[in-house]
Design a protein that fits this description.
Blueprint (H helix, E strand, L loop, with lengths): L1 E6 L4 H12 L3 E6 L2 H14 L4 E5 L7 H11 L3 E7 L14 H29 L2 E6 L12 H22 L3 E6 L4 E2 L2 H5 L8 E2 H13 L4 E2 L3 H6 L4 H13 L2
Parallel strand pairs: 1-2, 1-4, 2-3, 4-5, 5-6, 6-9, 7-8
Helix pairs in contact: 1-7, 3-4, 4-5
């Protein structure tokens, strides 16, 4: 049985990706920091699809969490052929005002544990000469983000890192893609402390685009024509727009 492992799997893009892979006949490994939400997600998916679902409660804001998660998966002897590094969060504010500990937690989940999970499961995929990895970045990866500096920088890292390992992995039969969504209707903005933009895309639509993009082995997946067109704007204009938007909050 082939399994898709999805972090941040109890809501938003992660949950919708889980549904898509269950529909495609994959077993699921769902990861979240909330056991109750994992149990709810498992129940809903198993009610709709006849696939095995494993759930692991793991807080990925802690350094070393990826190794603990990997050990749990190995103990169950699950063949993870699709890895979706979706877990993450953002923070808004001037860099000197954002709590240092929260910034460090964000770097741990957005960067450190994403790298660790990619490395650990990539080695297993190399052993099978096949596999797929989808790392979730953001349209914020394409420019610096004043008043959300660490978050945007973390997503720029994800995009750069994913492109690099994609180059390495291609010769060994493993696909690596990066999802760069714009504003999406999830709990991301409430966690960030801001309002969800009116033009935010539904998580279900973003997930479907991501699913097909990964199947087609696209390097960078940017859902929405508007989000793709925005990348053509001059860097300074994009930075000014981001700063104004984030300063409102």
């Amino acid at each position: 049985m082939e399994y898709a492992l999805i972090t941040g799997a109890t809501g938003g893009i992660g949950y919708e990706m889980a549904r898509l892979y269950a529909r495609a006949g994959y077993g699921l490994v769902l990861v979240s920091s909330s056991q109750s939400r994992l149990d709810q997600a498992k129940g809903r998916i198993q009610e709709a699809y006849n696939v095995p679902v494993y759930v692991f409660e793991q807080d990925l804001t802690a350094i070393g969490a990826a190794e603990k998660l990997y050990e749990k998966v190995e103990q169950e002897q699950l063949a993870v052929t699709v890895l979706i590094n979706n877990a993450g969060f953002g923070l808004v504010g001037a860099t000197d005002e954002i709590d240092l500990h929260r910034d460090e937690q964000m770097i741990a989940i957005n960067v450190v544990n994403l790298v660790s999970l990619s490395k650990l499961f990539l080695a297993k995929m190399y052993g099978r000469d096949s596999g797929k990895i989808l790392n979730v970045a953001s349209t914020g990866a394409f420019q610096p983000g004043p008043y959300t500096s660490t978050y945007f920088a973390s997503k720029a890292f994800v995009l750069s890192y994913s492109r690099a390992i994609r180059y390495e992995a291609k010769a060994r039969g493993v696909q690596v893609s990066t999802l760069c969504p714009g504003a999406t209707k999830t709990d991301f903005f409430s966690r960030e402390g801001t309002k969800t933009p009116a033009n935010a895309m539904p998580a279900e639509k973003v997930a479907l685009i991501a699913f097909h993009g990964l199947e087609r082995n696209k390097e960078a997946i940017i859902p929405g024509i508007k989000n793709r067109l925005l990348q053509m704007f001059p860097l300074k204009i994009k930075m000014i727009s981001i700063a104004k938007m984030k300063q409102k909050h």
